[in-house]
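To the wet lab folks,

You asked to see what we're planning to order before we commit. Fair enough. Below is the target structure as tokens, and below that is the sequence we designed to fit it. If anything looks off to you, flag it before the synthesis order goes out.
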């Protein structure tokens, strides 16, 4: 897997975001794609942890016509409820899976590019996870836990399952699309 920063993802103390060197459009597209892959892998792996059915995960880079390169992605549930039909007994699990994308993306930025983790979280939310956070905040009104508690649970689960998230992200970066069974195979389920 190629990155524009460090390739070893060992945990180190937080430091401010490094100055970004001038990158070519191809390098910027690859970076955006890697971030999208980490983001979608975070959703997918935590869905698997909670035994939520996964149909597929997709992440693609988009060449810019105007402006900066962008990437997009999504993870779909297999026969899961719609956003407004999640049963109360599993609401926290769904909130955590919505939050997992930004947390995985921020962790990737922190470990691979030496961003301060708090700054990486802010960037992840503002760049790729606006909808995820809106939905999670809406669901959090129905939870017995505070939004902060759910964010802390998400961070702990992403850290615990980081190896699986990086495996799924790497394969998603290579293939652009993974099926639910492929994701489960990659994480040993």
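Sequence we intend to order:
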């Amino acid at each position: 897997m190629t990155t524009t920063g460090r390739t070893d993802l060992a945990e180190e103390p937080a430091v401010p975001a490094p100055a970004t060197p001038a990158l070519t459009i191809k390098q910027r597209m690859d970076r955006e794609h890697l971030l999208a892959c980490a983001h979608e892998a975070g959703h997918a792996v935590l869905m698997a942890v909670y035994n939520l059915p996964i149909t597929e995960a997709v992440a693609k880079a988009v060449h810019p016509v105007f402006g900066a390169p962008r990437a997009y992605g999504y993870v779909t549930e297999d026969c899961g409820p719609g956003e407004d039909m999640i049963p109360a007994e599993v609401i926290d699990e769904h909130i955590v899976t919505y939050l997992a994308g930004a947390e995985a993306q921020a962790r990737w930025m922190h470990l691979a590019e030496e961003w301060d983790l708090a700054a990486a979280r802010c960037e992840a939310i503002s760049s790729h996870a606006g909808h995820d956070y809106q939905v999670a905040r809406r669901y959090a009104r129905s939870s017995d836990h505070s939004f902060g508690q759910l964010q802390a649970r998400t961070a702990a689960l992403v850290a615990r399952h980081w190896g699986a998230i990086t495996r799924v992200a790497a394969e998603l970066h290579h293939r652009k699309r993974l099926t639910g069974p492929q994701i489960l195979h990659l994480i040993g389920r």
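Structural context that might help your review: The mean pLDDT is 84. DSSP finds seven helices and three strands in the chain.

Thanks,
Computational group
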